[in-house]
């Protein structure tokens, strides 16, 4: 039984092994460039790349909207649909369907 325990203790008596072990533990957990810090930074990089993709999609949508609003027909369409504007000799009828009307909360 003592020989079995001695087999596992023997590497810890070697000074080079102890130095390498202490160095590895220091580099993994305590150093400024530790694995834990690298993991946090990699997670933050992934989140920022996701945000970058989102903002690039939003920029493309805005460019498309600007392109549509660059001519008179696009401006007229926006004014009629969003702001319910009309020409002087027109009448506008707004048709709302039952499912498009917001429901009031009875608990208020």
UniProtKB/TrEMBL annotation:
Keyword Membrane assigned: yes
Domain of life the protein comes from: Bacteria
GO biological process: cell division
Keyword vocabulary terms for this entry: Cell cycle, Cell division, Coiled coil, Membrane, Transmembrane, Transmembrane helix
Transmembrane stretches, start-end: 12-30
Alphabetical list of InterPro entries matching this protein: FtsL/DivIC
Pfam families: DivIC (PF04977)
Coiled-coil boundaries: 38-72
Descriptive protein name: Cell division protein FtsB
Lineage of producing organism: Bacteria, Pseudomonadati, Bacteroidota, Flavobacteriia, Flavobacteriales
């Amino acid at each position: 039984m003592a020989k079995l325990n001695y087999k596992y203790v023997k590497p810890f008596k070697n000074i080079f092994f102890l130095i390498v072990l202490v160095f590895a533990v220091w580099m993994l957990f305590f150093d400024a460039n530790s694995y834990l810090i690298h993991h946090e930074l990699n997670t933050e990089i992934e989140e920022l790349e996701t945000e970058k993709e989102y903002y690039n999609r939003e920029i493309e949508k805005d460019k498309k909207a600007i392109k549509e609003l660059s001519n008179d027909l696009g401006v007229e369409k926006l004014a009629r649909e969003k702001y319910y504007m009309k020409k002087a000799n027109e009448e506008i009828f707004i048709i709302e369907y039952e499912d498009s009307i917001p429901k009031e909360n009875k608990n208020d």
